[in-house]
Amino acid sequence: NQRIIFNEMPHGLPNPKTSLIVDNTLSIDLDNVPLEGGILVKALAFSLDPYMRNRMRPVDIQGDIDAFPLGETITGFSVAVVLRSETPLIQAGQYVYGFMHYQRYSVIPSIDANALGMKGLSLQVLDNKYNLPWRYYVGILGMSGQTAYYGLKDISNPKPGETLYISAACGAVGHLVVQLAKAQGLKVIASCGSDQKVSLVKSLGADHVFNYKTADTAAELKAHGPIDIYFDLVGGPTLEAAINNLACNARLVICGMISQYNLGTNEAYGIRNLWLLNRYRAKMQGLVVIDWADKYLDEFHDTVPRDLAAGKLKYLEHVYHGMDRVGEALVDLLVGNNIGKSVLVLEDD
Ligand code: NDP
Question: Where does the record place the Enoyl reductase (ER) domain (predicted)?
Answer without folding.
Answer: 17-344
